[in-house]
Structures are given as C-alpha cells and as structure tokens.
Amino acid sequence: MVFVESRGNDGVKPKSVSFSEAILHPSASFGGLYVPKELPKLDRDFLLQLPKNYKEMAFRLLRLFDIDIEDSLLQEALELYDKFDDPNNPVPVVEVDSNLYITELYHGPTRAFKDMALQPFGYILSALAKRRGENYLILAATSGDTGPATLETFKNRPNIKVACIYPAGGTSDVQRLQMVTEDGKNLKVIGIKGDFDDAQNALKNLLASSAFQETLRKKDIHLSAANSVNFGRIIFQILYHIHSYLEVVQKGAVAFGEEINLIVPSGNFGNALGAYYAKKMGLPIRKILIASNANNILTELIKKGRYDLRDKSLVKTTSPAMDILKSSNVERVLYDKFGASRTRELMQDLQEKGYYELTPQELASLQEDFDADFSSDEEVAHTIKEYALDKNYLFDPHTATTIKLYKKYAQDCNVAYSTAEWTKFAPAIWKALSGEELRDLEALQAISQKLGVVIPQKIAELFTKPIVHDLVVEKEKIEEEILAFL
Ligand SMILES: *Cc1c(COP(=O)(O)O)cnc(C)c1O
What are the pLDDT digits (tens) for 295-308? Predict the structure, then answer.
C-alpha cells in the first residue's frame, strides 16, 4: 500500500511514500494529508473466513493492506489489546434497543476510544524510530482524551519523548489525573493557564520558534504527530467497523450481505473516516450517520454542502471531545471523492475565505454515504436519563448524541459507537440523572450507588495516585519548559 497527498505534490516531497514514512513524517505537500492510493477489497469469502478473535481478525485485515511492517511487529502491536478488560473480546458489541447495537470502543487503559488506535500505533512508531536510530518528539495539545491515551501508549517507550499541554481547569478531574499521575521519564505534562485554544496556540508558537527548531536540530530530534490525522491511527480505526458488522451478523440481526448503518459521534472525523474506508472496501454499509453536539459544522456540511467557519465560535458542551470546528479528516473524504486539485482548492477557500461550498453534484455524492444530525446538551441529558433508567444502559454524553440518528433510522439495523466510558464524564451524567452538580469523585460514587455500576480500578485509583506533573504555567513559559525537558 502506498500513500499519496490529498492536495497534490509540490515537487519537493516524494510523489508517494510507504506506510512507515507516512506515519513518521505525517505532513504532506501544501499542508495536506497522506491518503492511501488504493484500498484493498473485502470480498465475501475473505469476510466470511475472518477469525472471530479480534487480534487475529485485525492481523488478517492489516496484512490485506500490504503495509511495510513485518508480521512480528504487527503481532506485538496487536498484543496491546490484551490490556483491555477482556482480552478475548476487547471490543464488545451489545444489543441495546430494537435495531440498535452499540460497539463499546472504550475498554482500553484510558477508558476512551483513542486507545483503540493509539495503543498499537504508539508501539509501532517507537519500534520504527528505534530501528532507524532516530529520536522523535511528539507534541500534543489536548482537551481531555487524546492526552491520556498518548501518554499511556508512549510511556517508557524507546526513542520517543512526549510533551503534552492541557488547559488547567479545562478538563474533567479524571482526565487531568490520568495525565498528571502518568509517570515515565520520557513524558512531560504541562498545564497552562488558559483554554484549549490557548494550548493549541502555544504549540503553534512553539513550532514557529527558532530557538525550538535550533534545539531540535542540535539534539537531532525529529518531530512527529500522534493526532488523528496520522494514518497510523486511521488504519486501526477501519478494523472495528468490520468487526462490528460481523458481530451483528453473528447475532442474527442481519443476514450476511445485508446493509446496516453505522452511527459515529464525530469530532475530528477519524472514526467516521475509518467507517467510510470500510464501506469503500466493500463492507455492506448503507449510510454512515454523523452525530455531533452544538458545534454542528459537520451536520451543516453533510446537509447543505457548506463548510462555513465564519460567524462560528466554539461552544463548550458536555461532550468536549467533539467540540471542534476544524475537522481535519473530512479532507480525506474530499480527496477520495473529488481528487487532489479540487481538495486543494476547497481547503484553500477554507483558509482564505473561511468557508467552502460544494457543488450540488458533489453534495449528492457526499449524501450517498453520509447523513448527519446534532444534539444539544439538553437533548443529550434527556437521552442519558432515558437509556439509563428505562433501558438499563448507561452511556456517556458523546455516545448519547448518536440516539437522535438511531431514532430517525430505527427501521434499519444500526450500530452506534460508544467512544468513552461513563466514568470519564460522571458530573454531566449525574446532572442528567439528578439535576445536581457534583465533582468527578462524588459523581462517580453517586452514579455507582444509584445504578449499581462498578467504578473500574483504573479510575478509582486515580484519586489516590501520587501526582508526578504538578506544573501549571502561563502560556508564554511553555517554550522554556519544553526546551528544558529536551
Ligand atoms: C476523540 C473522541 C471523539 C471524536 O472522534 P473523531 O475520530 O475525532 O471524530 C468522540 N468521542 C470521544 C469520547 C472522543 O474521545
């Protein structure tokens, strides 16, 4: 499998690169992304013969992609799914309502779906760096879930250092504790006085700083990225859609070959892109249904063909991992449907004019694969309460945004994705259930008592673990701290 660039080639970078090159150096010409030149096809016999075991299934699928990673390394990376709650079933698919199955992607070490991709990806990236004798720095600005999952996967791995910046006071207690209690000599976690935008801007300033670039050069450190535009994450996010389909067939919900819908709570569109690629490869998917919160820019794109950042500002919601206006992976769908020169044009419009508009034909093409809707925080709270009390199924606010689309498509068979465990967003859930505002620890206990659900060890122990990273600084101090760390 080779990778080309979503905005075309600038004549300086190579015209195509291998998988390992695309994941070590993920930035492509003109600010574009690496995209697979071709996807393998899933034929009927191949699908029917896939092993039931998740790791074995994943291995067979990854071999189909023909990437330049040898069997033993892939197998070692996939062993990380053994750290999930049930190594024999790391990704449970649960029947929750009539024609509604929920695939729980959160059974990994940090209790959110980022582990699905970051666990094996981190292992592979570090192994490639070590083999080449190169050192890499991963910079992450996080609003909550990416930070813990990135730290967890790279902790004590060779040839990789991670610096992670989070907005102090801008994450939940659980998310903050997951980061500041993570020990590992190669990790630096810094809280900044400011919000997520300030954290991202601090990173941008750092990247533009000559002192920083000079230090990287002197120390021979390369920069890479572990955010969801790295194809090394996307590839692992194709696999569980195929698993979900085979599971609902196995459960007798549909006959093999019948189409289902996938409902994806979306932010940066990595999860949804994985679903799109699976559909293109031949998985029987009717529609990919994109669920959002009040930051409903994806709904507008899919319903109206317009991606418009003008007059929009980020709204803080109870599903913060979806509080996003620039959804990076949409670009890969644009490339796939409309080609590199049109993608470059659209992305340029977005940058220069603050919006882009698809033609009616382009919009029709998008709507062949996607539909979308969004839920307000009130709707989310109502849905959490309805499912917890009437259907005996507890989910987090991100997952709750999928239910509106399920209700619209309830005559079809649907798989919705649960992207975080309830424990990561306990205050919002307790408020939905009781109207009362509590902090994380008290909310966890209250929910556990009321609904008889168990707080997993990984979460409970956070509140007594020693804090290793207590640094909170003004955003101007970030550079100094990171240079000292390097
Ligand atoms: C990251 C995240 C999302 C959004 O996923 P994308 O792949 O960025 O669209 C949704 N829910 C949770 C809990 C997340 O952590």
Answer: 999 999 999 999 99
Q: Is the CB of 108 under 6 A from ligand 1?
A: no
Residue 377, domain member (yes or no): yes
- Residue-level pLDDT at 81: 98
Q: How far is the CA of 419 from the centre of ligand 1 (A)?
A: 6
Which tokens hold the place of 221? 């450190």
Dist. CA 114 → ligand 1 center (Å): 7
CA 363-315-403 angle, to 5 degrees, is: 60
- Verify whether ligand 1 is closer than 6 Å to residue 144 (CB atom): no
Give the ligand 1 atom nearest the CA of 268: 8
More confident residue, 208 or 244: 244
* CA–CA gap between residue 50 and residue 41 (Å, rounded): 14
Say which CATH number the domain at 364 has. 3.40.50.1100
Q: Do 420 and 320 contact (CB within 8 A), yes or no?
A: no
Ligand 1 contacts CB of residue 233 (under 6 A): no
The pair of structure tokens assigned to 384 is: 């959490």
- Atom index in ligand 1 nearest the CA of residue 267 equals 9
Q: Is 271 in the pocket of ligand 1 (CB under 6 A)?
A: yes
Pocket test for ligand 1, best of 33, 104, 107, 266 (most atoms within 8 A of CB): 266
Tell me 421's DSSP state. -
- Give the chain's length: 486
- Whole-number Å distance, alpha carbon 420 to ligand 1 midpoint, is 8
- Domain containing residue 360: 87-109+232-455
Residue 195's pLDDT band (boundaries 50, 70, 90)?
Answer: confident
Q: 156 in a domain, yes or no? A: no
In a domain, 1, yes or no: no
Consecutive H or E run containing 220: none
Map 323-338 to HEC letters.
CCCCCCCHHHHHHHHH
Q: Determine whether the shortest distance from the Cβ of 236 to ligand 1 is under 6 A.
A: no
Label residue 143 by pLDDT band (50, 70, 90).
confident
Residue 27 Cα to chain centre, angstroms: 18
CA 430 to chain centre: 25
In sequence order, the 6+-apart residues with CB closer than 8 A to the CB of 252 are none
Q: At what angle do helices 210-219 and 478-485 cross, to 10 degrees?
A: 10
Nearest residue by C-alpha to atom 2 in ligand 1 = 321
> Residue 12 above 90 pLDDT?
yes
Q: Tell me whether residue 187 is in a domain.
A: no
Q: Is 228 in the pocket of ligand 1 (CB under 6 A)?
A: yes
| Structural domain total, the chain | 1
pTM of the complete model: 0.96
